[in-house]
Amino acid sequence: MFGELESYRQRPIPHLDIERQYKAGYRAWPIDPGDSRNQEKCEDVRNARILGANHYHRPDNPPYHVSIPGSIPELFLRKSIVEKLLRVDRKLRSNGLALFVHDAWRPAEIQSYFHDRWFPDYLRGHYPDWDEVQIMTEVEKYWARGAPTLQDIDPMSPPPHATGAATDLTLCTVRGDLLWMGTIFDDVTERAHPDFLERESGISMSDDEARKNRRLLYWLMREAGFQVNPTEWWHFSWGDQMWAKLASTRGDTHISAWYSVVNPLGA
User: Fold this and answer.
1) Where exactly are the structural domains of the chain?
2) pLDDT one-digit tens code per residue, 15-29
């Protein structure tokens, strides 16, 4: 089934320990709001015939199992991001596969709900001996701090999904059957680190399949210019602060971000 894509599945994801360390403080990375790309409009990726369903809006969305209040059905991304995803999708479709988008632009209320309430409450229930510092340290590994409303977001320090330049996605068949990636989407544990399965030895056939599928997604997206969030195999971005800081990690260049907060709803 994978054809020419099999070579991507055989290429290990590099260990991302440096990226995980360097990710800290990414929201202080400079943004150039005068860059013309920051004026780009957003569009729903499904209008470009990329498959997807907003995970926070649909009720069949483990581990939540309920449509999150304030969520939206659309999957908005900046025009340049959609064009990049289309190139990846075309390469996949020539081999019977496709991209499947779980999340894109995210309302401020959703960001705050998970950062301030859902995930802290989850951690308190599972780790009753943790203090609040431990809880919020763990929260910040996976959920960016939000704001009460979009207007309250600092345009020089927006959550990645508020920029329309970050997306959560996976791979599927052209019929929409999701490929196995080793965890569900939003499994915010170390198992979600893109390189987690590269560090494991003696893994099961299920984990080996997931490792190969993660490799395929990682290398196709990297080839298209995206950076992966080093704690989430599904999160990729281009042009936002996390992308800019991680793109500057292993070289001498210092790249500024150009995408700031955007409101595709026009309200």
Assistant:
1) 3-247
2) 999 999 999 999 999
